[in-house]
Specification:
The protein has 359 residues and is an all-beta fold. It contains one helix and 28 strands. Strands 18-17-20-21 form a four-stranded antiparallel beta sheet, with no helix packed on it. Strands 25-24-27-28 form a four-stranded antiparallel beta sheet. It has a three-stranded mixed beta sheet with strand order 3-5-4, with no helix packed on it. Strand 20 (242-252) and strand 21 (255-265) form a beta hairpin. The termini are far apart.
Length: 359
């Protein structure tokens, strides 16, 4: 633009104006805020220094606050609960850290075991500090049972009195449990056998009863060509009358003993009624002390006197010679009260009397 003016001197004055367009400002500002109420877009129309319009746009974005929850286990029950900390993040906003402590107690375990030592048995509790998988203590309960040594006893018979002894052998750790094994060997004196027997005749049938002592085996020879090893009693039937030499062989590891007796089987024998009339047993009942009396007009090579209890056990036996008169005294006060049977047996017959013992 050119303007012509007259100066004060009266001359022309020319003024040239150059007008340049001033730009308007359009500014965008990005901002962050921790407050959700401050977020959004704010537009402001302002005048610049040149007097032109200036548009300022503010874009306020929300900055997320930090919130973190951590679960922790503690072995200390006093630390149980929730711990909340509010901090300032690098953006200047609040940061909330929540820590929740849960109680994790010590771990428990049980162990059952055995021991061969008595002083090592019992209940034990061991604590390994910080030994559990969670870092807490580990408590181990141990129950230890005592296993005694196994014991066995062996009886070894011996015929030599100088060999009698008791031997104790200990084999360490040899039992099935791994403990000691104790073997007790008792060498016991075994007496030589003594063979003897009684018998009861009934016609041609004879019942034999072995009263041998210390015998581990016996063998009968009935005198008629037959034998048996039945122990202790056996009933044998003879084929006819006659005299039979019966032998009993008793044996054990210490020896053999033989007992012989002649058994006469015949139709002629003692008249039992007449014999009973001449038999006396007095007193009866008695306390174990009594006398057996017998008178007859015949002689006997031997007369067996066997006293049985009510169960058939022999409680007393003796053999006497009979020459027409007999007086046999008994003193059996050690026997318990009860009924007993006194059996008289000879080569000519037999008879049984009842004996009553009272106290």
């Amino acid at each position: 633009m050119v303007d012509s003016f007259v100066s004060i001197a009266g001359c022309d004055s020319i003024v040239t104006s150059i007008i340049t367009l001033a730009e308007s400002y359009d500014v965008i500002i990005d901002q962050l805020s921790c407050n959700p109420a401050d977020t959004g877009v704010i537009i402001q129309n302002l005048l610049s220094v040149e007097g032109c319009d200036s548009v300022v746009t503010q874009i306020i974005s929300l900055v997320d606050s930090y919130s973190d929850t951590t679960y922790l286990f503690t072995c200390d029950s006093s630390l149980l609960g929730t711990d909340i900390e509010i901090l300032t993040s690098v953006d200047g906003c609040d940061s909330i850290i929540t820590t929740i402590y849960n109680y994790s107690g010590p771990s428990f375990s049980s162990v059952i075991g055995n021991t061969c030592y008595l002083d090592s048995a019992g209940f034990f509790r061991d604590t390994i500090y910080g030994g559990a998988f969670n870092g807490c203590d580990s408590i181990i309960n141990s129950i230890v049972f005592y296993i005694p040594p196994s014991t066995s006893t062996v009886i070894v018979p011996t015929c030599d009195v100088s060999d009698v002894e008791t031997i104790i052998d200990t084999l360490y750790g040899s039992s099935y449990t791994g403990c000691d094994s104790i073997t007790i060997t008792i060498k016991q004196l075994l007496q030589p056998p003594v063979a003897t027997f009684t018998y009861i005749k009934n016609g041609l049938q004879v019942t034999f009863n072995s009263t041998s002592t210390n015998a581990t085996s016996i063998e009968w020879d009935f005198g008629d060509g037959t034998s048996s090893t039945i122990n202790p009693s056996i009933t044998h039937l003879y084929s006819g009358e006659g005299s039979y030499d019966v032998s009993l062989i008793a044996s054990n590891i210490c020896g053999i003993d033989t007992f012989n007796r002649v058994i006469v089987l015949a139709n002629t024998g003692i008249d039992l009624n007449a014999l009973i009339e001449t038999l006396t047993l007095y007193p009866n009942p008695n306390n174990g002390v009594f006398t057996l009396g017998l008178e007859a007009d015949f002689n006997l090579h031997h007369l067996d006197l066997v006293l049985y209890d009510i169960l058939g056990n022999v409680v007393d036996q003796r053999t006497v010679q009979f020459n027409g008169k007999l007086t046999e005294n008994y003193n059996l006060q050690e026997l318990p009260p009860g009924t007993y049977l006194l059996h008289l047996n000879s080569e000519k017959g037999s008879v049984t009397l009842k004996v009553s013992l009272t106290k």
